[in-house]
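Notes to self after the Tuesday call (sharing in case useful).
The group wants a holo model before anyone commits to mutagenesis around the pocket. I volunteered. Ligand is glutamine. Logging inputs and output together so the record is complete.
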Amino acid sequence: TRSAAKDIGAILADIEAEVRAENDWGNVASYIPELADIRPNQFAMSVCTAAGETVSTGDAMTRFSIQSVSKVFTLALALGRHGDLLWRRVGKEPSGNPFNSIIQLEVENGTPRNPFVNAGAIVTTDAILEGRKPRDTLAEILRFIRSAAEDDDIWINDRVARSEERTGDRNYAIAHFLRSCGNLRGECALVLGTYFHHCAIEMTCVQLARAGRFLCSAFGDQRLIPTERVRSINALMMTCGHYDGSGEFAYRVGFPGKSGVGGGILAVVPNVASIAVWSPGLNDFGNSKQGTRALERLSERTGWSVFA
Ligand code: GLN
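Result:
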């Protein structure tokens, strides 16, 4: 296993060199200054293997805003609390629309397509908030992530959360619409306050790859969630984790992943590896441009795929 880790280390170093040589970074998210001001030519990748090793390349100790990657953790918590009843409130189908799209909500009576588009994540946030205070719910989310990562040095960036709030009109529109359909129990401001804060969690690639181990049944912490739930979450990451770029991601990368507009992606090769990659420049779907390319290169080099 030591040599396996060395091999992965060499592969990661090659991938970083190729990414940097390509020098084609995409555009950073521009809707809040905290993301707009980030230098695009940054790259990091970390892989946690079943042997318990973490191998990294690049700026793997730099914290970034995990944004929609947090939707994986909130889904895990919502399923833990409500089980399959959650699926009465949110679907399991890819949306074919951008992450912040509203258009399907009216046609589909306020039932979001899946838990990874904003509308679906706002419903899952409401589901874990129910009967609790935002502060306690955020503490629960942080507790889950910290214990998955076995690292307590993981925090919410309040400035990012405040910027999200200030620019959150579209998410407010979604929340109000959901509530008008009876699919939001909490008050919009409380649910969105919680949502904006979990989007504003910051992690390094090393921390995110370690946190993702709970989705690798063979070596994840079984105490966090049962194996059948791992299967459900990975299936949704595969089909819905990259919004309207999910099909392309499945085709090119071949294993489940969840992206965020901060440029992070958490990817899982079931039973084999948990992978985090970060490069803040995005492609046209709002997914990390070089992060996606790097995962594609990693699957080519290792043969990792859920399809063959
Ligand atoms: N906070 C962002 C939003 O709600 C998250 C979107 C994302 O990462 N795709 O718009």
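Two things stood out.
Residues 67-68, 99-100, 118, 164, 171, 199, 260-261, 286 surround glutamine (CB under 6 Å).
The chain has a mean pLDDT of 96.
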